[in-house]
Amino acid sequence: MTAALLRTAEALHARARVGRRAVVMTMGALHEGHATLIRTAREIAGRDGEVVVTVFVNPLQFGAGEDLDRYPRTLDADLKIAEQAGADVVFAPFADEVYPGGEPQVRISAGPMGERLEGASRPGHFDGVLTVVAKLLHLTRPDVALYGQKDAQQLALIRRMVRDLNFGVEIVGVPTVREEDGLALSSRNRYLSAAERRTALALSQALFAGRDRHAAQEALRARAREVPATRARAEALSAIGESRAAADAHAVAKAVPATTSGPADVVVAARLVLEDAARLKPPLDLDYLALVDPSDFTEISDGFTGEAVLLVAARVGTTRLIDNLPLTFGAAS
C-alpha cells in the first residue's frame, strides 16, 4: 500500500469515500506506538474504509520555553511508517491551512479538568490541544478518531469535548505501547542520553509498584471476605504472603472486610520508587504523581470504588515525560 501525502483539506475532501474513515492524529516523529494506533484504525475502518494519519506540530499547545523549535520533524520517515502500518493518506497541512490568518482568536477552553495536573504544569496546553483537535476533526471529517491512552488526560478531554459540543465522531482509546524495559514509547524519548534513559525508567517502575501494591491489597481483601472473622481468617491472610498485612494479621482479622484497597498506599508505593530516582545521576525531577478519577481527573480518596488512573509526570535532564496506568478499585476488580 502506498499512502498519499496531502497538504490541503480540499485534496482530502476530493477523495471518494465508501466505507468508514478512521483518523489518527499525530505531531509526527512516528514510532511503534503510532503504528499501533494506525493498525488499530485499519482494523476499524476495514478493507473498504480509509485510514488518515495527520501530521501537524501544533504551536498552540507549546508553552513558553517548551520544545516547539526542536520538536522532531521527520515527514519522510513518518510517511513510510504510516504506509507500513496501513494508512491510506498522510494529511500534513501547513500552518496556514490549519490556522488561516494566523493564531485563532477564538479557541476551545478545556475548562476545570484542563487546569488540573498536566494543565496546571502547562497552562493553556489543553486549550491548544482541543482547538487543534476540533480543527482537524472538521478538516478530516472522520467517522472515528483514535488516540493513545498514554496521554490519558488529553484523551479524557477530547471525549468530553466531543460529547459536550456534539461532534459526530466516535473516539477510541488505544492502550499504551511500551519498550521491552517498560518505558512508554514517546517521540521525546530520542532526547534522552543513555544515563537519562536509565533514570527515566523510574516512571514506569513507579507505576508498576503502585499496580503491584494495588493487586496485593485487592487479593488480600478478596480473601478476607471469604474467610470468617476468626483466628483462621488471620492465618489465611498471613498465608497470602502480603507482608504488611501479615505483620498485623490479628488486627486485620477483627476488622470488617473492606470493599476497596487503599488508594493512599498505592500512591506511597509508587512515590518510594520516584524518591529513589531523585537521588540518581542524573536525577529524576518529579512534577506530579496522582491517582485520579478519569471522569474529571480529581484525586480519589480511600473508600473509592471503580475505575481510576495512576499518573506520573517528571523531567529527566531537559526532557519531560508522562506515563499512566489504569486501575480498578473495589468489587469491579
What can you see in these coordinates?
This protein is of the alpha/beta class and 333 residues long. The protein folds into two domains: 4-174, HUPs (Rossmann fold, 3-Layer(aba) Sandwich); 189-329, Pantoate-beta-alanine ligase, C-terminal domain (Pantoate--beta-alanine Ligase, Chain: A,domain 2), CATH 3.30.1300. The protein contains twelve helices and ten strands. α7 links the parallel β5 and β6. Pathway: Cofactor biosynthesis; (R)-pantothenate biosynthesis; (R)-pantothenate from (R)-pantoate and beta-alanine: step 1/1. This is Pantothenate synthetase.
Read across the widest sheet, the strand sequence of neighbours is 1-4-3-2-5-6
CATH architecture of the largest domain: 3-Layer(aba) Sandwich
Total DSSP E strands: 10
The helix tally amounts to 12
Task: Report low-confidence residues grouped into runs of 5 or more.
Answer: 245-260
> Which fold name fills CATH's third level, the topology of the largest domain?
Rossmann fold
Give the overall shape.
globular
Q: What is the CATH domain class of the largest domain?
A: Alpha Beta
The count of domains is 2
Radius of gyration: 23 Å
Strand content: 15-25%
Q: Biggest sheet: strands, sense, closure? A: 6 strands, parallel
Q: Assign a percent range to the helix content.
A: 40-55%
Based on helices, strands and strand pairing, what is the structural class?
A: alpha/beta
Indicate the mean pLDDT.
90
N-to-C SSE string, H for helix and E for strand: EHEHEHEHHHEHEHHHHHEEEE
Any idea what the CATH superfamily of the largest domain is called?
Answer: HUPs
Give the distance, in angstroms, between the N- and C-terminal Cα atoms: 42 Å
